[in-house]
What does this fold into?
Amino acid sequence: MPDALLLVLLVAAVAIGWWLGRRERQGSHDRAPPNTLSRDYFVGLNYLLNEQPDRAIETFVNALEVNSETIDTHITLGNLFRTRGEADRAVKIHQNLLARPTLTALQSEQVQLELARDFLHLGLFDRSERVLQQLVHDSSHEDIRHAAKRLLADLFDREAEWQAAFDVAYPNLIRQHEDIRRAAAHWLCEMADHERCSASPGLARKHLRRALSIDPRCVRANLLLAALSQDTGHYREAIRTLMRIPDQDLDMMPVALEPLHHAYAMLDDEAGLVDCLERLLERAHVTSLIILLAETQRKRHGLQVAIELVSEQLNRAPSLGALDYLLDLYQHQQQQQGAPDNRLQLLKQHTHTLLTARPRHRCQRCGFAGQPLHWQCPSCRSWGTTRPITGIEGE
It folds into this structure.
């Protein structure tokens, strides 16, 4: 599709440029050879008809003169080359434009912005940063400065320079764009995680409270706050913090279960854990929650209680994960009774294979799926868009 669009744009631009040039020559009695451009135009069409699109594109680009009528066309051509993965050719086009003395100030800044995108696409971060910093500080056009700041924040994000990214985005970009607001909260979480590893819990908490003030739905901030509390043995405080997560985002409840389990275990409070899990189960039917509650009850009251609990939950809503765990319970029960059933083992193998093959988390923006929870999607690089998969094969 980009190739077809590029060719259509080039053919139209060259044809219009040739027609405008011919009209100007007729008006001024210019004696320059009138057929030069048309010859390039038809050579390009010949390449196109012979299924040589790359050579056709090259011919059309060479035929398209840079003038006030074609500046926007050249910018668009460069962008299309970048979209096709040919950012080096986009750089050549945009640099060629910058060398033209006829550009207005706005056109020059637009070309510089696209050139910065080209460099970013090529991984030339230092060159892209220099161009963007100049635009941010020197541009007299608000929309250019705004776009440059967004690109600069993205560049710092790619380089894991969290503080620099936050400084660029704060406060205007954070206020105006939800995706940057989400990203800024995660940048602060990254900084807090670093401070936690550097034994600076006070500074880490400061970052996390700021993250929650920017994005109250940032589950990761409360997870890290709970981890800081557990680091210092404040397990009740950690539990209170973790219990805020279902209020932030009920679908993200599974990420809180392991630290909740750990906190109650350190307090030696199984009854408290059961009460907490039962209250959570009333709010959401989550497979990992059912399994944790059933396992806790099995240790306290035996296999039969756990079997009844899981069976009741499966009657409420089907779940492959809960079924797999129930088969485990039945196998343990049969081993205790001395009457193992090979049919259960076969079923268990099938459910285990299905669970092993399925992803557990999926990005809500691009659909990337995998086992671990990525706070930043590895595919589209969006922050906070990956969530547990729900349904029969999920949570």
